[in-house]
Each structure stands twice: as structure tokens, then as C-alpha cells.
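Standup notes, structure subgroup. Blocker cleared on the LLP input:
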Amino acid sequence: MICSNITRDADGTLRFAGQSVPALAEQYGTPLYLMDEDRIRFNCRMYRQALRDSFGDAALPLYASKACAFKQMYRIMAEEGMGVDTVSCGEIHTALAAGFPAERIWFHGDGKTDADIRWAVEKRVGRFIVDNETELLALAAEAKRQGVKQKILLRVTPGIDPHTFEAVNTGTVDVKFGVAIQTGQALDFARLALEQDALELEGIHCHVGSMVFDESVFEDSAEIMLGFIAEMKEKLGFEAKVLNLGGGYGVRYTEKDKHVDIPARIAALADFIKGRCAALGIAVPMLLLEPGRSIVADAGMTVYTVSTVKHIPNCKNYVIIDGGMPDNPRWCLYRAAYTVLHAERGGGETELFTLAGRCCESGDILQPNVPLPADVRRGDIVCVCTTGAYNYSMASNYNRLGRPPVVLLRSGDSYIAVRRETAEDLCARDL
Ligand code: LLP
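Run returned:
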């Protein structure tokens, strides 16, 4: 199976986190997001341990909550001792409403408004990751007004191509994020930050991309970032205490994807960083990473009921389900690959089917050409694996479809973390 938390009984019943998927579909209805809480916690602990082993207690993984955010997720992150990376007041509000400590929140984003800045400073959010000079000056003015010394990191771009798909490439010079090191602008950015009395510059941040499998990407960006830390030390007399290298480790969506051994990668990265710091004559900074996908992706599975099966002779076969692009837009947006499984039958004769959604749009495809039992029919339960990241968080109400509930699976038990969106919910804000 694509992930160790998916198994199949001898009678064909699919199990996720040890629990029968057809039984969960029966209990909670479909479409349904399942999330394996034990796996989320395991992934958090893996990151914490790996960072602790290499860098000591100061190093911290920040869960990139854009991957999947709801109150219970932030409670889990609080319990696991994680920090969180947020990009909006909505994410911050959810975190605070769940009791997540404000000082462990890092506030990202290239488009923060004055209202966002005012509110987040009022809430005493731990750190701002400042994207650009305009934001820097707006934040400095607001922190001064509130009499706060706001801790910040600066987002810089190292000019690295992570060899992933374009929509998630964020490290090259021409992207909209941050300030480029290569053009000399990042040094001016740091100088301006150091001039602000109401701001405390702790260090620098970069994020080069998502779905990174390439072994050298993090070392390459660390090399450039550490070089920039040395340059700031030499030219500005400022030695950064914190280096945040962002998120991005890839996960397995299909058998074709490689497994990334994250603890081994972090250990190798640590050796590299320590070696470069010694060579550059700078102190080893506190390392932060911002994993999103690699914390939650393999903890997720989406479960659907088949509505229709269509055979177009000498052309293609469709399995049409009761969800679609509103609950998972990733094939439509990125041509993202997924593994699709029948939840009740494993063996037997298979045929290739295109798994399509119920939206009034021919592009509403979840995955083309997936093998499913040749006798698949209305009422069967099918599921898409590895949907924990960027599915619920990117879900929409297109065609006025309510979003599925999120059910968490914990130690053989299950509970609703986000309830199903009802027709009343859909009209709740309409006047
Ligand atoms: N830090 C920053 C600043 C980011 O922009 C991101 C992702 C992360 C951390 C987390 O990266 P991860 O570990 O999850 O790869 N919607 C797209 C992914 C967009 C990623 C945006 N930034 C998708 O569905 O693939």
C-alpha cells in the first residue's frame, strides 16, 4: 500500500489507521475526510526529535497550517510542542480560539494589510515574517504605536530552483515573495529593519518550494542563506540568531514517488550547516523548518460513494462520485497524482477509470486512468489516499456543495473535528 496506515483485510475491506473504511463511510456519510491523528502526532514527533538530535532544544518545527487548519489541528500542534506558521488572521484566529499560545505563532504573508498588522500585534503574535520593506515600515509604525518591541524575521529569496512544479516554486529571484539576496536588495532590507527601534530582528527566512525530493535543495539554500548571514555580520555588524529554511519535503502520492527519509535529511543538513558556519566564522543559528505537507498528507484519506459508472466504447470509462473539485482541486490546479482505491474489493479484474466529480464542468476530474474493479457500480465506496494536505484547506463551495466533515481517527476510535457543512450553513451569510 502507498502508506503503512492503509491495509486491506482478506475479504477486501480497506482499513485506514486500523479502522474499516466502509464502516466509517456508513457511520459519517460521504464525501468524508478522514485524518489519522496518530500519524499526525507521529510526524510531529519525527520532526521534533530529528531537529533536537541535531541542533538541541532550541530548534523547532513550525507546522505550516495552510496545509490543513481547523481548531483541533491547532490543539494537536500545541500538545505536540510545535510552533505554527500562519498566513492570515483567519488562521491565527483559529489557532488562538483553540488555545494555541500566541508566542508560538509565526505570521507569514506577502500581502498583510494594516488591519492584519494591527490585530496581530494586539494579539501579541510571536513573530512576523516580514515580506518586504513596505510591510516592514507599516509594522514598525504599528508596533511603536502599541508600545511593543515586535520580533521579526525577514523573508529573503535565495535564487534556488527546487525542481518542482511552477505553482509551488517560491525560491527563485522572480517570484512574488520576499526580497532577493542576489540583487543586493536583501542587504538594504536588513539595514532598514535594524534601524527600526520597535522591531527586533532575529534572523532570516526562505522557502524555496513544495514537493521537494531533490537531495541538495535544502543544502543549496542553506549555503546561500548562511553566506548572507556572514555578509550581514561583516557589513551591518548584525549576527542573525535564527535561520528558517521553510517547508517543502515531498511525500508519496503514488508508488512512483520516492520516500523521503526526513530524519536522515535533517541530520545531513545539520552537518552541512555546522560545517559552513565554521568555515564562515559565524555562530550556528537556531534552525526552524516549516513542514506542512509532510506532517498531514499521509494522515488523510477522502472517502466517496460512487454515483454512476459510464463506459464510452473505445474511448474511456468514468467513475463519477459524490464529491469532486470542491473537496479536492489539486488535479485541476496542478495535475497532481493520487492513488485511488476501492474500499470494499481489492483483487479481481480491473479496468482503467477516470475518477470524476459531480460538478457541472467537464474538467472536474480527481484523477484520470486509475485501476478499479471492472464491476465497480453505484453505491460502492472508493477513496483517494494521501489527501491530508491542501485538500480540506483548499476546499470550496463550488456548485453550492457543502464541504465534507473532517473525522479524526485516534487509537481505534473516531470523532468529528469539523462537522459537515449543511444547506443552512451555505445560506448563513446570505442576506
Ligand atoms: N512555508 C512557507 C512559507 C510556504 O509557503 C509553504 C507552502 C510551506 C512552508 C509548507 O510547505 P510544504 O511543507 O507543505 O510543502 N497548494 C499547493 C501547495 C502550496 C504550498 C504553499 N506554501 C498544493 O496543493 O500542492
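Discussed briefly. Residues 64, 67, 85, 108, 168, 170, 207, 210, 246-248, 290-294, 330, 334, 389-390 surround LLP (CB under 6 Å).
Next: hand off to the docking folks.
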